[in-house]
Recover the amino acids of this structure.
């Protein structure tokens, strides 16, 4: 039996909140070290997950639901506090270098050196991700053409590209490094409707490459349209797990299981973040 | 096709050097500004030395003005070089935070050693080029007598000093990993302390006792002492050997210490979720 793309058991993460806790004696000033410590924020409650190879799995939930924490742990950017996770059989903590050979990530902000051209950024990515740079220019132009980006995009400084174009170049960059697992953390958030549709078409197009894709989004319609399987998350817990057809309309499922709409949950998370 | 192993690491090393070169190219106006700033600093120090005699601060026969000028100019030029290398290395984490690329770089399938060596190699090469430009523009303005200079010894001291300097730079680059909010300021503070304690513009014997202790553990002190000895007094390798021994010992200590502390700070940042935070 082949290794699953992702396997996690009891995966847990909490973050220390900044600042001291409430003052113990009303309004009188107290030194920070005399105040009680604020309780940790549990970003991920013990999570069990198995992701088979191929297809698009959506991780859906409002801000603060634990989606990005899960992606960052799999990307070896955050260390779990308990439990373990593996990518293609390699532990994300003890074999992080091997894990990184199999993955790439597209995040909500396209991570580029903005003053460099798209080409310079892509060459840098090719070099540090170990992609053979022979014929790179031709391959870059092919990938950009495949995703409908004009050829002159490549020589323009990234800051001159629209956010939608930057996100498309980011996806093209991840394809160039031929990852077996692609982690997409809200790639369409903040894009205008047209760019959003185009980026969604690119994600759909990735099926052709047999890449296992983990797509984080809080756009329920996007998840219903693109994903083969959906994990609905809230407050670091998985509320529901199934195919979009099994779960039905995701917005209703979320409301039914969490007791609030996803937009209310987003506003709640924003307020909580400000309070931190 | 993926290149792995040593070839992949060499590939990535070149990638970091090339990236730094491209960034310098794109931010060329800033580079011109820094070049002018370095040049003006060196010229100011040179003219300060030239003016010492006419300002009446030195009794005739008691101060060798030519020697003082050479002493100060060497200090200014070396500080220009050492500070570029130190800042380029120590700001590498901060720079990636500003650009928002830190997570992308840190999840690349390469060893951190390759990443840091790539950044350091460019910093040294760029520091040398920029300092040579300042040297070429400033030295003709002063009538310096370098006929006694031992260029070979000076070059050896310069090369050997690279190792502890890189180690120190890597240790300083840990600060923004430890504190996204205050790391940048702390790095600048470390640079200031090095300027004060390393005898850039004066012998360390004039410093108060505790600062002299700091000077003794700064690799820049030995770099400056060795290069001044070679260029002003024409000291050969034997005569600068104490400085070379100190620099080698510091390199042996500071390079692994830098790499270990970077590894520790990276793990801490990943445990606390500090990689992405930008203050």
């Amino acid at each position: 039996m082949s290794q699953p793309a992702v396997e996690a058991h009891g995966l847990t993460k909490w973050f220390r909140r900044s600042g001291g806790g409430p003052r113990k004696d009303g309004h009188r000033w107290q030194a920070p070290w005399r105040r009680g410590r604020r309780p940790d924020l549990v970003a991920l409650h013990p999570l069990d997950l198995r992701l088979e190879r191929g297809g698009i799995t959506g991780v859906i939930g409002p801000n603060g639901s634990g989606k990005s924490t899960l992606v960052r742990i799999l990307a070896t950017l955050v260390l779990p506090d308990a439990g373990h996770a593996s990518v293609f059989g390699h532990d994300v903590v003890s074999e992080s270098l091997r894990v990184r050979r199999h993955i790439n990530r597209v995040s909500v902000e396209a991570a580029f050196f903005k003053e460099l051209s798209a080409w310079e950024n892509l060459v840098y990515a090719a070099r540090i991700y170990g992609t053979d740079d022979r014929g790179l220019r031709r391959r870059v132009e092919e990938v950009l053409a495949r995703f409908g980006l004009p050829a002159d995009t490549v020589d323009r400084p990234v800051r001159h590209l629209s956010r939608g174009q930057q996100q498309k170049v980011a996806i093209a960059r991840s394809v160039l490094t031929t990852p077996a697992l692609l982690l997409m953390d809200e790639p369409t958030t903040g894009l205008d409707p047209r760019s959003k549709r185009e980026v969604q078409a690119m994600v759909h197009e990735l099926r052709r490459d047999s890449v296992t894709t983990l797509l984080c989004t809080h756009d329920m319609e996007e998840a219903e349209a693109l994903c083969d399987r959906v994990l609905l998350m809230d407050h670091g817990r998985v509320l529901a797990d199934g195919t979009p057809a099994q779960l039905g309309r995701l917005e209703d499922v979320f409301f039914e299981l969490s007791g609030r709409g996803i937009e209310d949950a987003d506003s709640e998370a924003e307020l909580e973040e400000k309070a931190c | 096709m993926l290149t792995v192993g040593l070839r992949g690491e060499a590939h990535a090393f070149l990638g970091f050097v090339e990236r730094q070169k491209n960034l310098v190219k794109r931010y060329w106006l800033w580079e011109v500004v820094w070049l002018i700033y370095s040049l003006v600093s060196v010229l100011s120090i040179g003219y300060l030395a030239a003016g010492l005699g006419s300002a009446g601060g030195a009794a005739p026969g008691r101060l060798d003005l030519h020697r003082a000028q050479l002493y100060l100019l060497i200090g200014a030029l070396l500080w220009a070089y050492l500070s570029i290398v130190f800042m380029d290395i120590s700001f590498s984490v901060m720079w990636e935070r500003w650009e928002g690329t830190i997570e992308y770089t840190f999840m690349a399938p390469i060893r951190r050693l390759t990443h840091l060596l790539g950044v350091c190699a460019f910093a040294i090469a760029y520091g040398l080029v920029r300092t040579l430009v300042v040297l070429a523009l400033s030295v003709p303005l002063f009538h310096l007598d370098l006929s006694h200079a031992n260029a070979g010894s000076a070059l050896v001291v310069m090369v050997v000093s690279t190792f502890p300097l890189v180690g120190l730079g890597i240790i300083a680059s840990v600060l923004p990993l430890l504190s996204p909010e205050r790391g940048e300021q702390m790095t600048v503070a470390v640079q200031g302390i090095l300027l004060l304690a390393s005898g850039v513009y004066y012998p360390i014997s004039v410093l108060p006792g505790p600062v002299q202790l700091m000077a003794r553990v700064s690799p820049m002190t030995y770099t400056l002492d060795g290069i001044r000895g070679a260029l002003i007094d024409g000291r050969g390798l034997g005569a600068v050997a104490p400085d070379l021994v100190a620099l080698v010992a510091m390199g042996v200590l500071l390079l692994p210490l830098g790499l270990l502390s970077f590894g520790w700070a990276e793990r801490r940042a990943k445990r606390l979720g500090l990689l992405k935070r930008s203050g």
